[in-house]
Amino acid sequence: MVADSINYTKILPLAVESRSRRRQFLPDNGQRFISSGNNIIRIPISASSLLDTKHSYVKFTLDNTTGQGLGLDFGGGSGLIQRLRILQGGTVCSDVQNYNKLVSAILLPAQSDTSRTATRSITDGQRFLSSAAGGAAGAGLDASTNAEITGASPATPTNAHDAVPAAGNCVLCVPLVNGLLGSTQDKLVPLQLLNSSPLVIEITLAPVLDIGTFTAAPAGYEVFNISYVASLVDVGPEVDQHLRQVQALSGGRLIMNGTDYQNYVGNITANATGIQSLDIPCRRKSIKDILWVGCSNTFAGAALQEDRYNLSFGGHMNLREYSVKVGNTLFPPTPVDCDFQGANGNGRSEAMEELAKCFGQVSSVHGQGVLRRQNYLMNVGLNAGMQIESAGGAVMRTYRFGPMGLSLESFGPDGKGGRAIESGVDTASHHKPMTLQLNLLSAATEQLIVQIYAVYDTLYYIDQVGNLRVSM
After folding, report:
1. Which terminus of the chain has a smaller tally of CB atoms within 10 A, N or C?
2. Is residue 3 part of a domain?
3. What percent of the chain stands above pLDDT 90?
4. Domain tally, the chain
């Protein structure tokens, strides 16, 4: 063995001739979309290039036509996407219902750290520490910004109602979370091989009351100037020829893999106790994780929805323990112990470690996003526990999060962001039933809605005709 420092046979390979460029893809079904009406946006993606999904994002302008001041929820621009689908021809490549809940209540709190929150104060209109969120106060340190700085500074302060003033607008840029066109796709997508029909990004806008808080009951909002800002890579004919050769050697199919999400909704009736079995009718060959967040969706009396950040909110639901049952097998064999009761925060540590397994390693020095003692599983999950807006000059209120999860992988992540495709749980081959087992220590006085997401591996096949097929 020769050390690299004196190994003169180890040199850089010859570069592949390529050129990176930026291109905007526009919707083909309109230019302005309304949350309460024409709320489905379709963006076709077609080019004779490779698509770098890690450096691509959706851009749009939010027009606050609600008649009220608006403070965006923690998901920012992602909070406006109620459903995300990726299609090609008649094939649905990916379909995530309640996408905004997944991103706002689970992925962003558990994965994006404080430095990312600082960046999102620009791209998503979020507050960072005590700074202004946007709107009139976003351009510099004016009087309202200075007033906010007098407050306390939790890591995830809620937006004020004037973040996007009535009749104002803001430009939002958000990356997509998706197995094929999302930021986790490790390979460049060869659009030049999709000759039959383009890929289509289909976005369904969320109801107005879910995107944030308002000074009073709002009307619908609008979005315009929508585009998918794609990073394309142009390569020489020798690369295209190589792709065709790989395709031919693989039985006429070029294969890519990704990680996708499937949403299921469970209900826990008011005053329920004991074991609650929530069905997860997911038939997939490699299920990696089960993620969920639970809270009330009951808005009555003084706790109006327009005053509450309900999208990012979650609570501990008075859990004693939890597990996932696949067929007759429990994961883990011994349920995760919580012993939550009312405002008891002493049972959170084991739940946090199990959540950490879904996103990396429990020994990681990077921690778990912005989740911390002040904002994680702070209450049962009832309406009154949802956070409200932080007024300028007052003490900053932090968002309250409640993501939970269980990893079903045998091998775990490889440490480089990859997943071992053979290590997940298979519920498709033998049609095994799957349920989330929640054991409630005591009753909640309101009905709890549990948003459950199955995380699974997907294989994408591009055939020689240009059709994209999906195996899950």
Report:
1. N
2. no
3. 45
4. 1
